[in-house]
């Protein structure tokens, strides 16, 4: 028996474990080395990390702000792909940026237990997978925008185009979006997820 036990999961974490993790590649190495209990514990810890460290709120808030700006002014559809690719790049880069204090903590702190090591590996895996998915989806959106399946502009109303300067519209949309969506999106996420 290992020192690990399967953690309690909430509804979102169970959904990620039972539905999402099946999409990830599974059979690497020799499957006889691991028993089902160890794999289930690893899946549960990984699911908890996906729910905790995959911060989709920023993507939703910024995506909504882009849609509002696109409704008010002209916005090329390639920007949506650029936005997703940028978020993916940030998700890949940020875990590796260290201040001297963070670097010292990571290097000199030895994991107390097998569970601490597994959680650290799960967190790293989540951040990498999230970044790669963002880059991939962003590049696909950009290719679709350039090649033609997506129109030049997703929302074509352009209600305020020519009425006020686009830079002023950008500042207003970002400020109002941050104030509005900054409260709304977390409330929706908390209620439904």
* Main beta-sheet annotation: none
Q: Compute the gyration radius: what is it? A: 21 Å
Q: Which range best describes the helical content: under 10%, 10-25%, 25-40%, 40-55%, 55-70% or over 70%?
A: 55-70%
Low-pLDDT parts are none
Q: How many β-strand stretches?
A: 0
Structural class assignment: mainly alpha
Proportion of strand residues? under 5%
State the domain count: 2
In whole angstroms, the N-to-C terminal distance is 33 Å
**Can you count the helices?**
7
Mean pLDDT: 79
* Element pattern in H and E: HHHHHHH
Oligomer: single chain
Which of globular, elongated, flat, extended, rod-shaped describes the shape? elongated
Q: What can you tell me about this protein's structure?
A:
With 193 residues, the protein is mainly α. The chain has 2 domains: 53 residues, no CATH class; 138 residues, no CATH class. The longest helix is centred in the last third of the chain and has 34 residues. It is elongated and about 65 Å long. It starts with 10 loop residues before the first helix and ends with a helix.
Concise summary:
The chain has 193 residues and is mostly helical.
Keywords:
single chain, 193 residues, mainly alpha, 2 domains, 7 helices
Outline the secondary-structure elements:
Layout: H1 11-20, H2 36-53, H3 57-72, H4 78-93, H5 100-108, H6 114-147, H7 166-192
Helix pairs in contact: 1-2, 2-6, 3-4, 3-7, 4-6
């Amino acid at each position: 028996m290992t020192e690990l036990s399967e953690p309690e999961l909430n509804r979102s974490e169970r959904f990620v474990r039972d539905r999402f993790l099946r999409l990830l590649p599974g059979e690497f190495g020799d499957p006889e080395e691991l028993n089902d209990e160890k794999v289930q514990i690893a899946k549960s810890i990984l699911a908890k990390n996906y729910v905790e460290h995959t911060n989709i709120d920023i993507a939703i808030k910024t995506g909504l702000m882009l849609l509002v700006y696109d409704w008010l002014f002209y916005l090329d559809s390639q920007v949506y792909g650029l936005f997703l690719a940028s978020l993916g790049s940030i998700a890949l880069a940020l875990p590796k940026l260290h201040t001297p204090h963070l670097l010292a903590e990571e290097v000199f702190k030895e994991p107390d237990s097998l569970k601490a090591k597994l959680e650290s590996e799960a967190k790293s895996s989540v951040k990498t997978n999230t970044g790669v998915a963002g880059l991939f989806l962003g590049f696909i959106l950009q290719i679709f925008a350039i090649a033609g399946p997506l129109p030049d502009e997703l929302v074509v109303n352009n209600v305020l185009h020519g009425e006020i300067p686009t830079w002023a519209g950008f500042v207003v949309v970002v400020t109002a979006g941050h104030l509005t969506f900054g409260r709304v999106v977390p409330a929706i996420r908390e209620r439904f997820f």
